[in-house]
Amino acid sequence: MGLNPATEILPEDIPIDEYVDLLLDLEAFTVFYKNLRNRRGKSTTSPTRIGLNGMAGWLAQRGWNSVVETNVSPYPTRRGEELERVSTPMQSRHIFYQLMRVLAPRLVILHGKDALSEFTSKLGHRSSRALLVLLLW
Predict the structure, then answer these.
(1) 71 within a domain of the structure (yes/no)
(2) Rg of the Cα trace of the chain?
(3) Closest CA to 136 of 108, 109, 118
(4) pTM of the entire structure?
(5) Distance between CA 97 and CA 51 in Å, rounded?
(6) Which residues 6+ apart lie within 8 Å of 10 measured at CB?
(7) What is the number of domains present in the chain?
(8) Using an 8 Å Cβ cutoff, are 59 and 67 in contact?
(9) Residue 108 φ/ψ, nearest 5 degrees
(10) Which helix (H) or strand (E) holds 132?
(11) How far apart are CA 3 and CA 8, in angstroms?
(12) Residue 100: enclosing H or E segment and its boundaries?
């Protein structure tokens, strides 16, 4: 669990309705995201993504067959501070809170101090059964 996608996706990159459709199709989203990063002169796979893929693979090898990767907010910005300037409805954090309530995970892996702060301040008391792991890279 991270705070939000760190590669900014702007309205001129993709219309909002197409972006929402991509959020429901991981394979298509991954292709779009890699192409966008490539057009911006970045590697197609970020160091963070490499680490997250490695962690998911490691967990799968140990019997964790259902791994959900998510962010507190699906709204992509380059920095967490930029997310705070986005209106609350556009941040869509309520979707994440509902997901956490419905899934009630046994393990939550937090990526970054902002994700830790968000989790403990909003959900920590409800997730006392979950094992927390904090990764900072």
Answers:
(1) yes
(2) 15
(3) 109
(4) 0.72
(5) 24
(6) none
(7) 1
(8) yes
(9) -125, 125
(10) strand 131-135
(11) 13
(12) helix 93-103
Range of the domain at 81: 16-135
Report pLDDT digits (tens) over 48-100: 888 888 888 898 899 987 778 888 888 888 888 888 888 888 888 888 888 88
Contact indicator for 28, 22 with CB cutoff of 8 Å: yes
Q: Tokens at residue 105, please?
A: 């995970």
Residue 106 inside a domain? The answer is yes
In single-letter form, the type of residue at position 8 comes to E
DSSP H/E element including 133:
strand 131-135
Neighbour count for residue 77 (Cβ, 10 Å): 20
Query: Measuring CA to CA, how many Å separate 83 from each of 13, 31, 64, 78, 133?
Result: 18, 24, 31, 9, 24
Which token pair is 9? 């996706």
Tally Cβ neighbours within 10 Å of residue 124.
15
Rounded Cα distance between 131 and 34, Å, is 32
Structural domain contains residue 11: no
Asked, for residue 26, whether it belongs to a domain, the answer is: yes
